[in-house]
Design a protein that fits this description.
It is a single chain. By secondary structure, the protein is an alpha/beta fold. The protein folds into 2 domains: 243 residues, Phosphoenolpyruvate-binding domains (TIM Barrel, Alpha-Beta Barrel), CATH 3.20.20; 30 residues, no CATH class. The chain contains 13 helices and 8 strands. Strands 1-2-3-4-5-6-7-8 form an 8-stranded parallel beta barrel, surrounded by 8 helices. α10 links the parallel β7 and β8. α4 runs parallel beside α5, α5 runs parallel beside α6 and α9 packs parallel to α10.
């Protein structure tokens, strides 16, 4: 199947099935391959993971559209599975968003979410989030939908209004996004409990995407709980790179303290295992012998 057929199949599954799909956050080529190797429903590239892995900076609007799209293209090229990404605010106003949607489609991904924050934005889990008016946001969303060439490229509306104006306003905005033509709605990182998650799923006119984050144990729900609440796509954007950072830090501390790699030798993939995961047999079968 070509990318258009793959997008069509994915969108049909999302829109018509009541099953919940789980997409795991990847931040580079090898983590994208790991997501596919383990067998999740798809991969996802979040703004926070991209900013930290590409530039070593926080998610406060420092990554350009060109950098984000290039990184998404590189990750999508490593795998053969659904891949969604964080397109921030569309990188400007409605004119900028028109170019952004074309670049995203050309990157070979399956869809992206566009938020109603001001530009420059910040991670939705941070304090001080500001959102634009719905009049301004809808101009941007309508431009994205008008100039989307592939109708099966998923355009996901995202509102961060819950942390600013409360859940009622967030749901109002979510349904305005749905009425304008968004395929799904994403309510950011601030839903406090399963009752709120179920409420947005019940009251939103299109399927809802939910972000599973490790902010605290109180808001860290199981996949079964989220499915029962009505979530259609669960993204797990940061768990992998948060664990990756800690594992890398602990390994370096151990090596610095002991100077002896034999102390952690058994915890490493072998070179052969690394090359197998990287697809050595696909690229050069003779090199795998």
């Amino acid at each position: 199947m070509n990318i258009y057929e793959k997008r069509a199949a994915f969108k049909k599954k999302v829109m018509e099935s009541e099953d919940m799909l789980t997409l795991v956050g990847a931040f580079d080529g090898i983590t994208a391959r790991l997501v596919q190797h383990v067998g999740f429903d798809g991969a996802y590239m979040g703004g926070q993971a991209a900013a930290s892995s590409m530039l070593g900076v926080p998610d406060i609007g420092l990554v350009t559209a060109t950098e984000q799209v290039k990184h998404a293209h590189d990750l999508a090229s490593c795998i053969d599975m659904p891949f969604l990404m964080d397109a921030d605010t569309g990188y400007g106003n409605e004119v900028n968003a028109r170019r952004t949607i074309h670049d995203l489609e050309d990157a070979g991904i399956y869809g992206a979410h566009f938020e109603d924050q001001v530009t420059p934005k910040r991670c939705g889990g941070m304090s001080g989030v500001q959102v634009i008016s719905m009049e301004e946001y809808l101009k941007k969303l309508e431009m994205i939908l008008k100039y989307r060439r592939d109708p099966n490229f998923m355009v996901i509306g995202r509102t961060d209004a819950a942390s600013v104006y409360g859940l009622d306003e967030a749901i109002r905005r979510g349904n305005m996004m749905a009425d304008a033509g968004a395929d799904m709605v994403f309510y950011g990182h601030v839903l406090k409990n399963l009752d709120e998650i179920k409420r947005v799923c019940d009251e939103t006119k299109v399927p809802v995407m939910y972000c599973l984050m490790e902010f605290s144990r109180d808001v860290c729900f199981t996949l079964d709980e989220l499915k029962a609440a009505g979530v259609r796509i669960c993204i797990w954007p940061n768990g992998l790179w948060m664990r990756w950072w800690k594992a890398a830090h602990d390994l370096m501390v151990q090596f610095k303290e002991t100077g002896d790699p034999k102390t952690f030798f058994d915890d490493l993939y072998t070179p052969a295992e690394c090359n197998e995961l990287l697809g050595i047999k696909e690229w050069n079968p003779s090199a795998a012998e």
